[in-house]
Amino acid sequence: MNSAAPTDPPPSHSPLQKLEEGGALSHFASSIAHEVCNPLSQIVLATDLLAGPRPMTDDLRKKIVAYLRQGSERIDKAMKSMLQTCAPIETSMTTEDANHLVEAALSSLLLDGKVKIEKHLTPGLPTVLVDKAHMTDAIAGLCTNALDAMRPNGGTLTITSSAKVFTSSEREGWQRQSWFRAGDHAVVIEIADTGHGIHESQIPLIFEPFYTTKTAGKGAGLGLTVAKKIVDLHHGRLEVGNRPEGGVLAVLTLKSAIQSSLPTDS
Ligand SMILES: Nc1ncnc2c1ncn2[C@@H]1O[C@H](COP(=O)(O)OP(=O)(O)OP(=O)(O)O)[C@@H](O)[C@H]1O
Ligand SMILES: [Mg+2]
C-alpha cells in the first residue's frame, strides 16, 4: 500500500525571520549601528578627555563641547529619521501658502558662499493643506541633497513654484486611486541643482531606506525615504531625476486646498 509521504508542516516564520528575508533586517541593523556607534565614539572620546589628566584649557573645553554636540546631534537626527521611516508619521494639517514653506526650508539651510540660490516663486498660488513642519522638512531635505551634490565647487540651486491644473487624471504606479484627477488644482515646487547628478543605475535605489552614496557621517540615506513618505501622506507626488543639462531636478506636486472644477475622467 502506498502511503503518502508525510508532509512537512508549513514553515512558521517569526516576524523577525520574515523581516530578515532578503537581508533587510541585517541591513537595517548594521545601518542603525553605524549611525549610532560612530557618533557615540565621539561622545566617549569627549568623556575620556574630560576625565583625563590634561589641564582644562579654553581650547580643550571647546573641543569637548564640539565632540559632545556633534555626536549627540547626529544620534538625534538619525533616531528621528529612523522613527519617521518605520513608525506612522503624525500630521497636523493647516492651510498654507507653498511659498512660505519654501522660504522656511531655505532659511533652515547651512549655506556657504559657493552656492547661488535663485528663487522663482509665483505669487498668489492656491493654498495647500499640509503638515507645515513635515513638509518644510521634506523641502529642506531635497535642498540639502542639492547642496551636497554641489560640494566642494559650488553651483546654483534654483527653486521654482508654480500653479498647475490637471487636464486629465494621472495615476501613480500601483495606486488604484488616481492621485490627481482632471480639474485638480495643484502647486508644483521644483528644486534644480548643478551638481554631479545621480548615476542612472542608482536612480531606482534613491528612495530606499539607508541608500546613500555619502561618506559616513554625511548622510544616513533616509532623507528621500522620509520625504517620499511625507509627500505620500499628503497624496502628493515626488519625482527625482537627472536634468539633461547636468545636475538633478526634484519635482514636488501638491494638491491645492481648493476644490477641483472639472468633471473627473476616472
Ligand atoms: N540632488 C542630488 N544630486 C545627486 N545625488 C542625489 C541628489 N539627491 C539624492 N541623491 C542621491 O540619493 C541618495 C539618497 O538620498 P537621501 O536624501 O535619501 O539620503 P542622504 O542624503 O544620502 O542621507 P540623509 O538625507 O539621510 O542625510 C544620496 O546619497 C545621493 O546619492
Ligand atoms: Mg538627503
Describe what this molecule looks like in 3D.
It is a single chain. The protein has 266 residues and is an alpha+beta fold. It folds into two domains: 15-86; 93-255, 2-Layer Sandwich (Heat Shock Protein 90). It has helices spanning 15-20, 24-51, 58-86, 98-107, 132-149, 223-233; strands spanning 93-96, 115-121, 128-131, 155-165, 185-192, 237-242, 248-255. The strands form two sheets. The protein has a five-stranded mixed β-sheet with strand order 2-4-5-7-6. A hairpin with a 5-residue loop joins strand 6 (237-242) and strand 7 (248-255). Helix 4 crosses helix 5. It is globular. The termini are far apart. It binds adenosine-5'-triphosphate and magnesium ion.
Explain briefly what this protein structure is:
The protein is of the alpha+beta class and 266 residues long.
Defining key terms:
two-stranded antiparallel ribbon, alpha+beta, 2 domains, single chain, about 270 residues, binds magnesium ion, Heat Shock Protein 90, 5-stranded mixed β-sheet
Write the element-wise H/E pattern from the N-terminal end onward. Answer: HHHEHEEHEEHEE
- Output the structural class: alpha+beta
Shape summary? globular
Low-confidence stretches: 1-5, 260-266
Q: How much helicity do the residues have?
A: 25-40%
What is the CATH level 1 assignment of the largest domain?
Answer: Alpha Beta
Percent of residues in β-strands: 15-25%
What is the arithmetic mean of pLDDT?
86
Please identify which CATH superfamily of the largest domain we are dealing with.
Answer: Histidine kinase-like ATPase, C-terminal domain
What is the gyration radius calculated from CA atoms? 23 Å
